[in-house]
Amino acid sequence: MIMVQFLGRVLIPLLAVLALLAWGATSLLNTTARSWFERDATTRVHIAMSSARDTLATCLAAGDRRRLSSVLEEIGRGDSIVGAMACSTSGATLARTRGFPVSLGCEPAGGEAASAGASPPSGDVDFSSVLDGRPVRVSVVSIRDADDELGRVMVVHDMSYAAHRQSAMGRMTAAVFAVVAVLASLLTILLQRMSWRSWTRELRRLLIMGRAPFAPRPAQRLFQPLLADVRRMAADLAAEESRASGGPWSAERLHRTLERSLRGEGVVVVANREPYLHERTSGGSLKVVRPASGLVTALEPVMRACSGTWIAHGSGSADRETVDRHDRVSVPPGEDAYSLRRVWLSEEEERGYYYGFSNEGLWPLCHTAHTRPVFRAGDWRHYQLVNERFADAVQDEVSGTDPIVLVQDYHFALAPRLIRRRLPRATVITFWHIPWPTAERFATCPWAKELLTGLLGSSVLGFHTQAHCNNFIESVERHLEARIDRERHAVVLGGRESLVRSYPISIEWPNRAAAETAPADECRRTVLADLGLRPDALLGVGVDRLDYTKGIEERLQAVDRLLERFPHLRGRFTFVQLAAPSRTLIERYRVLHQSVEDLAARINQRFSSGTYRPVILLRANHAPSAVFRFLRAADVCYVSSLHDGMNLVAKEFVAARDDERGVLVLSRFTGAARELTEALIVNPYDLEEASAALATAVAMPAREQADRMRAMRSYVAEFNVYRWAGRMLTDAARVRQHGRLADRLSMGLQPLEQGRGSEEAHG
Ligand code: ADQ
After folding, report:
1. N or C: which end of the chain has fewer CB within 10 A?
2. Hey, which bits of 1-124 come out as E strands?
3. 648 C-alpha vs ligand 1 centroid, how far in Å?
4. Following DSSP, what letter does each residue of 101-129 receive, concatenated?
């Protein structure tokens, strides 16, 4: 279709213009060539005549016809000359050569002479004519003796050769234009193809990436209105879908989905990190801690809605004191919405499975952040062992034979298959919270095959983005003999199907932490006062675990560059970094810790004046409402991850800003950048771009801030964590139903016609 339009709009007009040009050029060439040939013939005649003129005059004066004939014969031997004739002044023929056309007498037609229009003042006349069917040039030369005319000599020049050459030239011109037309058409098609391909590539990239980066290229700028339309349509469709299928996703709707589609079974979550740790303080009292973890942030509200059991490593110093004899404790404290089952690991197991294989091996393997993965056989053995331990715990915790188990993250790649071995009818939903690397990179893991086989024990395997799904499927193709069903987004291994789909994770909405935090004005006032900043200070905020993938060093360098480039911000702009210590037993994390401290100190030394400090590091694990207090107080939140599966801080910032103020500057290497397209999207490695984005953010008019924030808030409200969980559970319910029907058929029973209700009654 596009090709036909292209033919009609570009190619045919181009060819028509070329044809017109060819026609014009041929006519012009013809006219010019003809006049050149005529002039050439005339010149040649006049040269021949000038040497014979005196002899001719003598002959004419003497009336010597014999000599006149021989002189004419001499002239008539010239190249392309047909013949010559001598006439008296009265118009009588005096002599003529043999070849001279008989139709031409001594009285030339006045019209012809006049039409030739070339009569020189001497009385010579030259004109073109057609004699006996051939084109000729006739030159009439007046022979004089002083002022008296003695007679005239007519010389006829054959012009057929000129006509031949003209038509050969016409053919050549046409051929040249034909070649030009073909080449021009090919070139145009080629250029059109190339530009179409680069446009569509750009458009697709932007559709996947969302908004163009902070400093877009011209093509990206061109697509902005189109992208805005596509996003609006997608949001309308999502809203329409949620209206049609029972309203927006909420805790209640998720609960209903679980009851209807999955017979109300409580779910079992397997995750390394527990949602609540019990710690003994130095004063001897007990305290409950919410860990800084994206997984906990996302999953905790889901568990509140679904109830069931969360199985995790009991890592708090007072965890053992607070569980019952089955190692369980009801959480959240005081609300008892679900059960937390703690699994105990020895120090050695924790070092091998958690710090070693998971965080020195898989974490750097999956993140492009320039830290080399370390794979140790001892760590791998612990990883296998701990995965077995958690699979045993799942078996202990479930009541039926077909539970719903949610396996979380890279700590448990082997668990799905191990759980299936123990509970063949279980529905195992696995979610990988970090990026999946390219097949090439993944192949560097010595146990790549085992990890893939383990994960393919899942009924549903989820990633944040389609790109991560594609990487996973390529890794499967490379390492396993499995069938890929691209239409269903599934992998079939050993006759068992696993759906591999993208489920972008999100946060709860309405957000509990936001509801527990003071209004924005108050947050701003108290935060500025607590930090000792002036009331008109401009505040930037970053919130992270201290991890090298989060780009904290690049973030501080961008602040340094900001103050260097924009001196008017010195004394006014302060960046507060909330940094929760993380994985501190690993050397790489200790190095990062030190380098972030050193960098902050250097920037402070460079730009501090009086009580002003441009960078404030708050190294602690803050309570969720404390995090929200900073997010609410900020003018700008900068998320600068070098690589991040999703990044929930970006979405939390949006949830915090019910005042529709504040600007999000977001790394393009986060999953969130594909969704929060109204943020200022930057490359965190590009300090010029990042510092310019920070400057733009602090100077952004309130109205633009509100427009951007409103759009992002409506997006996160719609695409919240209940939707994330609901979509996975709904897909799992379909897989489960499919499996049951297949079981009945294999047992020789008829599939039930009553639909799901009857199926459930007998299930
Ligand atoms: P994380 O790497 O933990 O998550 P992220 O998604 O940013 O990263 O979530 C961090 C969470 O911890 C947020 O809820 C944040 O508020 C909290 N937090 C961070 N610093 C804190 C601090 N100093 N004090 C208190 N709380 C703090 C992994 C993946 C991500 C993915 C999530 C969810 O690495 O890409 O988004 O899982 O799938």
Report:
1. N
2. 81-88, 93-96
3. 6
4. -TT--SS--HHHHHHHT---TTS-EEEEE
Distance between CA atoms of residues 677 and 173, nearest Å? 57
Is the minimum distance from the CB of 645 to ligand 1 under 6 angstroms? yes
Answer yes or no: is pLDDT of 757 > 50: no
> Distance of CA 212 to CAs 216, 222, 232, Å?
6, 10, 16
In 3D, which of 157, 159, 164 has the Cα closest to residue 77?
A: 157
Q: Ligand 1, residues 508, 577, 642, 648: which to mutate, most atoms within 8 A of Cβ? A: 648
Ramachandran angles phi, psi of 154, nearest 5°: -105, 130
CA of 469 from ligand 1 middle (Å) equals 22
Map residue 280 onto helix, strand or coil. strand
Q: In Å, how far are 103, 154, 539 from 57, measured between CA atoms? A: 26, 14, 112
Between 50 and 269, whose confidence is greater? 269
Are 634 and 662 in contact by the 8 Å Cβ rule? The answer is yes
136 neighbors 156 (Cβ within 8 angstroms)? yes
**Which ligand 1 atom sits closest to the C-alpha of 543?**
20
Q: Is the CB of 298 under 6 A from ligand 1?
A: yes
681-692 residue pLDDT tens: 999 999 999 999
H or E, element range at 431: strand 427-431
Report whether 545 contacts 359 (CB < 8 A).
no
**How crowded is residue 511: how many other Cβ atoms within 10 Å of its Cβ?**
23
Residue 343, pLDDT above cutoff 60: yes
Considering the chain, what percentage of its residues have pLDDT values greater than 70? 89
C-alpha to C-alpha distance for 267 and 255, rounded to whole angstroms: 11
Q: Which ligand 1 atom is at minimum distance from the Cα of 619? A: 23
Residue 493 corresponds to which tokens in the numbers above?
Answer: 């291994």
Band (pLDDT 50/70/90 cuts) for residue 158 is confident
Distance between terminal CA atoms of the chain? Answer: 52
Mean of the per-residue pLDDT values for the chain?
Answer: 89
As a whole number of angstroms, the distance between CA 170 and CA 446 comes to 74
Residue whose Cα lies nearest atom 38 of ligand 1: it is: 433
With a 6 A CB cut-off, is 665 part of the ligand 1 pocket? Answer: no
The arithmetic mean of pLDDT across residues 451-463, rounded, is: 98
Among 293, 505, 508, 576, which residue has the most ligand 1 atoms within 8 Å of its CB, making it the best to mutate? Answer: 293
Kindly list the strands in the beta sheet with 496-502, ordered across the sheet, starting from the edge strand earlier in the chain: 328-331, 338-343, 308-313, 267-270, 404-408, 427-431, 460-463, 496-502, 490-493, 483-485
Q: Is it the case that residue 292 has pLDDT exceeding 90?
A: yes
Partners of 277 in beta bridges = 289
Ligand 1 centroid to 204 CA: how many Å?
29
Site to probe by mutation for ligand 1, drawn from 646, 653, 667, 716 as the one with most ligand atoms within 8 Å of Cβ, is 646
Q: Strands 680-682, 663-667: parallel, antiparallel or unpaired by DSSP?
A: parallel
Of the listed ranges 225-234, 596-605, 616-625, the least confidently predicted one is 225-234
The rounded Å distance from CA 654 to ligand 1 centre is: 15
